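Checklist before submission:
- one chain only
- standard amino acids only
- sequence pasted in full

Submission:
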Amino acid sequence: MEGATDDSGFSDEQRSGLEARQADRDRTLDAMHRLEAALSEAAPGREDPWREAVVDSLSVLEEATAEEAENARRPDSLLSDLARSQPMLRNRARALRLQYEKLRDTIVSLRDEFQCPEDAIDYADVRQRLGWVLTGLRHQRARESDLIYEAYYDAFKTELRAVSDGGDT
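Returned file contents:
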């Protein structure tokens, strides 16, 4: 986190990484909200349209998380910069990426499982299982925010509030 050029202490590359990260997080959060809305719809007596809405929402969430993960792996990403500039946090950044990958694999697996219309669907079970995934994503987002805040604070000995919009984690 070196090479500061603006009032917040971020270089242009770091500022760009922070903005890209926020755009990814916003897209993923929108997909999470879409899935929550689909899950909260009435299912009894309309299992097929309910399943279709859930599977469609899972597909959107899968795409959003895939793009977010791909961007986070880029050499110019905020997590990559953090791992490079603060070696003590490198393992935590790696662990975040691995755990996020597991969540994404679970999303794909569940989408594939729920996609089959011939199978009877237990909508209460689906809601609970996808609730765990959504909770896992929220937990992951909070851990990433904590790591980035810690890295920023360690580098600049100041709070990140001036550059954060305080969005949902």
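Reviewer check: Confidence is low (pLDDT under 50) at residues 162-169.
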